[in-house]
Write a structure and sequence with these properties.
Radius of gyration: 19 Å
Number of strands: 0
Number of helices: 5
Distance between the termini: 30 Å
Strand content: under 5%
Structural class: mainly alpha
């Protein structure tokens, strides 16, 4: 049977069950990240960051040096927040291990 035979709508999601502990842990971490980024606190962090930095951006082809600085600050802010939240919610969480699992 193919996916076409299932007659699924575009928004339908198929969830496969994990077959081993490593897959289950990966799924747990990924699901927890989804939970974190949909929470109001994370949304507020993003909103505050945007309010602080949006004035630096213009509708032009030019890439200003400040864009790199802002991007690095955003990545640092989000990664630190996610890692701290994951450590609170998942025992023995390691961002390094999770990043290796993504590769």
């Amino acid at each position: 049977m193919s996916f076409a035979d299932l007659n699924l709508e575009e928004e339908d999601i198929i969830v496969a069950q994990s077959t081993n502990a490593a897959d289950s842990r990966f799924d747990l971490i990924t699901g927890t990240i989804e939970d974190i980024i949909t929470e109001p606190k994370f949304q507020q962090i993003q909103s505050d960051f945007m309010d602080k930095n949006y004035r630096h951006f213009e509708n032009s082809e030019e890439n200003k040096l400040i864009y790199t600085t802002i991007h690095k600050e955003y990545i640092n802010l989000v990664e630190k927040y996610l890692e701290n939240e994951l450590k609170k919610r998942i025992s023995n969480f390691s961002m390094k291990e999770y990043m290796n699992d993504l590769l």
